[in-house]
Amino acid sequence: MDILESLKDLFEASIENLEVRTAESGAEALKILESEPIDLVISDYKMPGMNGLEFLHKAKATAPGVPRILATAFPDLDIAVRAINETKIENFITKPFEPEKAIDVVQGVLERRRAEAMRNRSFARSMEVFRKTRPADPPPE
User: Could you confirm whether domain 3-133 is CATH 3.40.50.2300?
Assistant: First the structure.
């Protein structure tokens, strides 16, 4: 079984209500991002066609609100700094993967994203109620 299928199985079995989409290349992943709502992007640094930083730049431009995680077997300080500063990744996962740590990282990012979405919906509802209940502005004098 290849690493993508193994990670898909691990995350779907360990995190409730999760559907994992996989892509064999950055170009394939970008097509998915353009056509489907995605809650989280995990990218390997080394992959066919483009490296992880190139992909994450494009993913950020395509879906700027979607959090990104970089997976790498090469924890290089320059790559880490560039990933944080240029692509605004949420976290790293180092390879070889420690299943519990990878699950914790992914679950934490997803929980923060869901909490932020809930806060945004709640704020929007509050603003709507405020607009409906607020007295009309008096006409200018």
Answer: yes
DSSP secondary structure letters along 45-82: SS-SSS-HHHHHHHHHHHSTTS-EEEEES---HHHHHH
Pick the closest to residue 16 from 103, 91, 116, 119 (CA basis): 103
Enumerate the domain spans of the chain.
3-133
Q: What is the pLDDT along the chain (141 residues), one digit of tens a residue?
A: 488 898 899 999 999 999 999 999 999 999 999 999 999 999 998 888 899 999 999 999 999 999 999 988 876 778 878 888 888 888 888 888 889 999 999 999 999 888 887 888 888 888 888 788 876 666 777
